[in-house]
Design brief:
Aspartate Aminotransferase, domain 1; seven-stranded mixed β-sheet; Aspartate Aminotransferase, domain 2; alpha/beta; single chain; 14 helices; 15% strand
Amino acid sequence: MRFETACIHGGYQSDSTGSVTAPIYLSSTFAHPGVGQSTGYEYARSQNPTREQLEQTMAALEHGQDALAFSSGMAAISCLLELFKPGDHIIHTDDLYGGSIRMFKEISQKNGLQFTAVDTGDLKAVKQAITKDTKAVYVETPSNPTMQITDIHALSELTRKYRLLLIVDNTFLTPYFQKPLDLGADIVIHSGTKYLSGHNDVLAGFLVTAQKEQAERLHFLHKTIGACLAAFDCWLVSRGLKTLPLRMERHTASATRIAKWLLKQPKIKKVYYPGLKSSARYDIQDRQTTGAGGMISFEVDSEETAVHLLQAVNLICFAESLGGTETMITYPLLQTHADIPKEECYAKGINEKLLRLSVGLENVNDLIADLKQALK
């Protein structure tokens, strides 16, 4: 079954009613046929038919053994970190979503985990950071917000050598453009709130695993912690997935045009977009993906220009999320990375002049016109 078909049919077989869409099972519990007997469903925290259908679809799209749906992307990451014990060490991409860094520093470190941030695209840096306590390497590629690229396959060879888990956040590109498990990763993370659902109307998160043993442990943690995705929210994400290929192609086509337009604007000093041939590690990005996605970051000439642009856009929303039908612009220093010390942000290129743009599905000419008038 090809990707586009799997998005629509991958996790669902019609029941006796002939319904072409999966039903929403709102029941919190399920009756037993008899003592010691089960329909396969017992309590919605453990499993729900609507969630199961979505999880099967996600496993199919990522070429994984199993998938788990969570109430948010951060809930998925929180559950993932329960695979580790006090004293364990995790290496992660230095340019990482601020919420993930906040989780590592404010919660996981308190619980005894250790973290080291490096450029995971630099294999020597990763190797030098490995200690006897290292258990995993955690990657975003492209990273948020400066679009650093990591060679997943090359890194997987290193992690296998040292028997480390390789964890990849695939939120920006989705399995339509990038399949980390095929490249050697062990676990894939998604904020399903973003491109997978695609309509800015639901919070969701996913873990997809390459190995059954990991899946069994994560299912135990999933039902124990209880941050499972509700049935109606599962249905919303399933509905969004049906148009994922079409949306990702449109996001990318528009983002490519806008990125090239931004390069020509006098007030724009730097453009971060993995689809530009001038971008760092473009050859790796081109080799391991089939598209560049809809995320662009760019640096303007001054803080005043950044603030003016955010206040002057009309069509584009000044908002913190990404991956939806509406185009949104974000100020990372004050929004996604507000809880990260400024000196750390500055070291990563996240400063008062950096903006992040999630290109939506509007007509690209209207988006360029809005940016043009806001840059005056």
